[in-house]
Amino acid sequence: MGDIPKTIVITGAGSGFGALAARSLARVGHTVYAAMRDTTGRNADRVAEARAYATEHGVDLRTVELDVLSQESADAATATVLAEAGGLDVIVHNAGHMVTGPTEAFTPEELMAVYDTNVLGTQRVNRAVLPHLRAQGHGLVLWIGSTSSRGGTPPYLAPYFAAKAAMDSLAVSYAAELARFGIETSIVVPGSFTSGTNHFITGGHPAEQNVVPAYEERYAGLMDQVARRLADLAPADADVSQVADAVVAVVDAPYGRRPFRVHVDPANDGSEEVSRVADRIRAEFLTRIGLGDLLAPRAATDSATGPAAPAAPRA
């Protein structure tokens, strides 16, 4: 476990990566809020499951109502966590939504909805939590990305891929803008796990089906083919819990020395190689323009005395 237990909020933690990470972080001693929407409705069973898990394992796993599509909900969830736990150290941007189908078949409004969940949702949550993290002068913003942003990209997933790429770009910019507040950034990048999550099961499809038959004539069974090939590429020991393990490792790493990006990619689609180059160029460019200090978090700057030495942070 890390030296000091942290208070952590994970968005979209009702299932999949989020639920697994919430349980894993709670098991090593952190106070974890599994954030999800509609906690008294369709997700009531997941709230009950989290409560039962906490009781059975004697861990501090809680739930909080948070709909990333609503700024009011993000603000209320943050206020609840601060009131109950007395602080907040880590926010994990995990909420996301996948859709599958020929790109042409999706209306602009459907693409906008995917972007709203995967990208604008992180912005709403950041606007709720960052004032607190900035004021305390330390913290961790951890983003759950996707290898699709820079690796292999099979067809029929374009709206999701485009949104995850946008989220990655947002995370990279935020990293530099938060560094001088002492806030750290890490991006955990899962590859294509074909089992253990419900991304494909709950994923959406184009509402207007009139275009789909034309594509079926030339791309019949494409999604099934992609799923089979991805499953074949994954090693026998590939397990979705590896993503949760990576999240725990990042959270428990020493402040100021957390990795900027961690790949968990059983299929090895090339994202790690491309990201290594892109992240190196980013670091070199920031250094060239005199902003090398933005590559690592620093304590809040006192305008009278200049940068202060980092205090012993909780995160």
Description of the structure:
- The chain has helices spanning 16-27, 44-57, 71-85, 108-136, 158-179, 199-202, 212-219, 222-233, 241-252, 271-288, and strands at residues 7-10, 31-36, 61-65, 90-93, 139-144, 183-190, 261-264, 301-302, 306-307.
- The two termini are 13 Å apart.
- The chain contains 10 helices and 9 strands.
- Strand 1 (7-10), helix 1 and strand 2 (31-36) form a beta-alpha-beta unit.
- With 315 residues, the chain is of the alpha/beta class.
- Helices cover 46% and strands 13% of the residues.
- The radius of gyration is 20 Å and the shape is globular.
- The strands form 2 sheets. The chain has a 7-stranded parallel β-sheet, sandwiched between helices.
- Residues 300-315 have low confidence and may be disordered.
Characterize this entry briefly.
The chain contains ten helices and nine strands. It has helices at residues 16-27, 44-57, 71-85, 108-136, 158-179, 199-202, 212-219, 222-233, 241-252, 271-288, and strands at residues 7-10, 31-36, 61-65, 90-93, 139-144, 183-190, 261-264, 301-302, 306-307. A seven-stranded parallel sheet has the order 3-2-1-4-5-6-7, with helices on both faces.
Could you name the key traits of this structure?
315 residues; alpha/beta; two-stranded antiparallel sheet; disordered C terminus
